[in-house]
Amino acid sequence: MTENNKDQYVHVTHEFGPVYDSASKILILGSLPSVKSREQQFYYGHPQNRFWKVLAQALKINAFPDSIEQKRRLLLANKVALWDVIASCDIIGSADSTIKNVKENDMRVILDAADIRAIFTNGTKAHDLFQKYCRKCSMAKIPEIKLPSTSPANAAWSLERLTQAWTKAIGDYI
Description:
The chain is α/β, with parallel strands linked by helices. The protein has one domain (10-171): Uracil-DNA Glycosylase, subunit E. It is built from 6 helices and 7 strands, in the order ββαααβββαβαβα. It has a 4-stranded parallel β-sheet with strand order 3-2-6-7. A 3-stranded antiparallel β-sheet has the order 1-4-5, with helices on one face. Helix 5 (124-134) links the parallel strand 6 and strand 7.
Protein backbone atom coordinates (compact mmCIF):
# COMPACT_ATOMS: atom_id res chain seq x y z
CA MET A 1 0.00 0.00 0.00
CA THR A 2 1.54 3.26 -1.09
CA GLU A 3 0.07 6.66 -0.49
CA ASN A 4 2.42 8.93 -2.38
CA ASN A 5 -0.22 11.05 -4.08
CA LYS A 6 -2.77 12.39 -1.61
CA ASP A 7 -5.29 13.04 -4.41
CA GLN A 8 -5.32 9.48 -5.72
CA TYR A 9 -7.51 6.60 -4.66
CA VAL A 10 -5.67 3.80 -2.91
CA HIS A 11 -7.06 0.34 -2.23
CA VAL A 12 -6.80 -0.24 1.52
CA THR A 13 -7.24 -3.51 3.38
CA HIS A 14 -7.87 -3.43 7.13
CA GLU A 15 -4.70 -5.08 8.41
CA PHE A 16 -5.37 -5.56 12.12
CA GLY A 17 -8.12 -7.45 13.84
CA PRO A 18 -10.90 -6.50 16.21
CA VAL A 19 -10.43 -6.17 19.95
CA TYR A 20 -12.93 -8.25 21.92
CA ASP A 21 -13.35 -11.25 24.17
CA SER A 22 -16.27 -13.34 25.37
CA ALA A 23 -17.06 -10.81 28.13
CA SER A 24 -17.56 -7.89 25.70
CA LYS A 25 -20.98 -6.24 26.10
CA ILE A 26 -20.84 -3.35 23.63
CA LEU A 27 -19.32 -3.06 20.18
CA ILE A 28 -17.99 0.27 18.94
CA LEU A 29 -17.56 0.50 15.18
CA GLY A 30 -15.64 3.03 13.15
CA SER A 31 -15.56 3.18 9.38
CA LEU A 32 -11.89 2.46 8.54
CA PRO A 33 -8.61 3.29 10.30
CA SER A 34 -7.04 6.60 9.28
CA VAL A 35 -3.68 6.72 7.53
CA LYS A 36 -2.02 7.39 10.92
CA SER A 37 -3.87 4.48 12.55
CA ARG A 38 -2.87 2.17 9.71
CA GLU A 39 0.76 3.22 10.22
CA GLN A 40 0.48 2.43 13.95
CA GLN A 41 -1.51 -0.76 13.32
CA PHE A 42 -4.16 0.16 15.88
CA TYR A 43 -7.39 2.07 16.20
CA TYR A 44 -7.65 5.84 16.55
CA GLY A 45 -3.93 6.52 16.28
CA HIS A 46 -4.16 10.08 15.00
CA PRO A 47 -3.10 12.36 17.87
CA GLN A 48 -5.98 14.77 17.18
CA ASN A 49 -8.66 12.07 17.27
CA ARG A 50 -10.45 12.31 20.60
CA PHE A 51 -11.65 8.69 20.78
CA TRP A 52 -9.39 7.50 23.61
CA LYS A 53 -9.97 10.62 25.72
CA VAL A 54 -13.73 10.45 25.23
CA LEU A 55 -13.94 6.73 25.92
CA ALA A 56 -11.74 6.91 29.03
CA GLN A 57 -13.83 9.76 30.43
CA ALA A 58 -17.12 8.07 29.51
CA LEU A 59 -15.93 4.96 31.38
CA LYS A 60 -14.84 7.15 34.31
CA ILE A 61 -11.19 6.18 33.88
CA ASN A 62 -8.78 8.84 35.11
CA ALA A 63 -5.68 7.67 33.27
CA PHE A 64 -5.57 8.23 29.53
CA PRO A 65 -4.16 5.12 27.79
CA ASP A 66 -0.94 5.79 25.88
CA SER A 67 0.29 2.48 24.52
CA ILE A 68 -1.56 0.00 22.34
CA GLU A 69 -1.43 -2.52 25.17
CA GLN A 70 -2.98 -0.02 27.62
CA LYS A 71 -5.71 0.71 25.07
CA ARG A 72 -6.44 -3.01 24.64
CA ARG A 73 -6.62 -3.47 28.41
CA LEU A 74 -8.93 -0.48 28.78
CA LEU A 75 -11.32 -1.94 26.21
CA LEU A 76 -11.36 -5.48 27.54
CA ALA A 77 -11.49 -4.51 31.22
CA ASN A 78 -14.59 -2.45 30.47
CA LYS A 79 -16.29 -5.05 28.25
CA VAL A 80 -15.88 -2.97 25.09
CA ALA A 81 -15.30 -4.55 21.68
CA LEU A 82 -13.79 -2.36 18.95
CA TRP A 83 -13.69 -2.83 15.20
CA ASP A 84 -14.46 -1.14 11.90
CA VAL A 85 -17.25 -1.70 9.40
CA ILE A 86 -14.87 -1.83 6.42
CA ALA A 87 -12.60 -4.78 5.62
CA SER A 88 -11.32 -3.11 2.43
CA CYS A 89 -12.17 -0.19 0.18
CA ASP A 90 -10.78 2.48 -2.09
CA ILE A 91 -10.11 5.80 -0.35
CA ILE A 92 -8.17 9.03 -0.74
CA GLY A 93 -6.04 9.53 2.37
CA SER A 94 -8.26 9.33 5.45
CA ALA A 95 -11.28 11.09 3.96
CA ASP A 96 -14.42 9.08 4.76
CA SER A 97 -16.25 11.08 2.09
CA THR A 98 -14.12 9.41 -0.61
CA ILE A 99 -14.78 5.80 0.42
CA LYS A 100 -15.95 3.52 -2.40
CA ASN A 101 -15.86 -0.16 -3.40
CA VAL A 102 -16.50 -1.32 0.16
CA LYS A 103 -16.11 -4.88 1.38
CA GLU A 104 -17.48 -5.14 4.89
CA ASN A 105 -16.15 -7.01 7.91
CA ASP A 106 -18.20 -9.98 9.09
CA MET A 107 -19.67 -8.83 12.40
CA ARG A 108 -20.56 -12.42 13.28
CA VAL A 109 -16.91 -12.87 14.30
CA ILE A 110 -17.67 -10.82 17.41
CA LEU A 111 -21.41 -11.41 17.74
CA ASP A 112 -20.98 -15.19 17.82
CA ALA A 113 -18.29 -14.95 20.51
CA ALA A 114 -19.72 -12.33 22.87
CA ASP A 115 -23.10 -11.30 24.26
CA ILE A 116 -23.17 -7.87 22.64
CA ARG A 117 -25.99 -5.75 24.08
CA ALA A 118 -25.56 -2.71 21.82
CA ILE A 119 -23.62 -1.59 18.77
CA PHE A 120 -22.35 1.99 18.71
CA THR A 121 -21.16 3.63 15.51
CA ASN A 122 -18.58 6.39 15.79
CA GLY A 123 -19.97 9.05 13.48
CA THR A 124 -22.33 9.30 10.54
CA LYS A 125 -20.17 7.50 7.99
CA ALA A 126 -19.69 4.45 10.24
CA HIS A 127 -23.46 4.48 10.92
CA ASP A 128 -24.38 4.72 7.24
CA LEU A 129 -21.92 1.97 6.27
CA PHE A 130 -23.16 -0.26 9.08
CA GLN A 131 -26.77 0.20 7.97
CA LYS A 132 -25.91 -0.47 4.33
CA TYR A 133 -23.57 -3.44 4.71
CA CYS A 134 -23.89 -5.03 8.14
CA ARG A 135 -27.42 -4.65 9.47
CA LYS A 136 -28.66 -8.15 8.85
CA CYS A 137 -31.56 -10.10 10.29
CA SER A 138 -29.26 -11.90 12.73
CA MET A 139 -28.46 -8.55 14.37
CA ALA A 140 -31.95 -7.07 14.17
CA LYS A 141 -32.51 -7.40 17.92
CA ILE A 142 -29.30 -5.62 18.89
CA PRO A 143 -29.79 -1.86 19.15
CA GLU A 144 -27.46 0.30 17.06
CA ILE A 145 -26.79 3.81 18.31
CA LYS A 146 -25.05 6.48 16.25
CA LEU A 147 -22.62 8.50 18.34
CA PRO A 148 -21.06 11.81 17.32
CA SER A 149 -17.70 11.31 15.66
CA THR A 150 -14.53 11.73 17.70
CA SER A 151 -12.65 12.70 14.53
CA PRO A 152 -10.90 16.07 14.47
CA ALA A 153 -13.04 16.78 11.37
CA ASN A 154 -16.03 17.01 13.75
CA ALA A 155 -14.87 20.33 15.18
CA ALA A 156 -18.44 21.39 16.00
CA TRP A 157 -18.36 19.01 18.97
CA SER A 158 -16.13 19.97 21.91
CA LEU A 159 -14.41 17.28 23.98
CA GLU A 160 -16.83 17.99 26.83
CA ARG A 161 -19.90 17.69 24.60
CA LEU A 162 -18.61 14.48 23.00
CA THR A 163 -17.90 12.97 26.41
CA GLN A 164 -21.39 13.82 27.66
CA ALA A 165 -23.04 12.24 24.61
CA TRP A 166 -20.89 9.10 24.75
CA THR A 167 -21.30 8.72 28.53
CA LYS A 168 -25.09 8.98 28.30
CA ALA A 169 -25.28 6.51 25.39
CA ILE A 170 -23.03 3.74 26.64
CA GLY A 171 -23.92 4.03 30.32
CA ASP A 172 -27.00 1.84 30.06
CA TYR A 173 -25.12 -1.01 28.41
CA ILE A 174 -21.96 -1.47 30.48
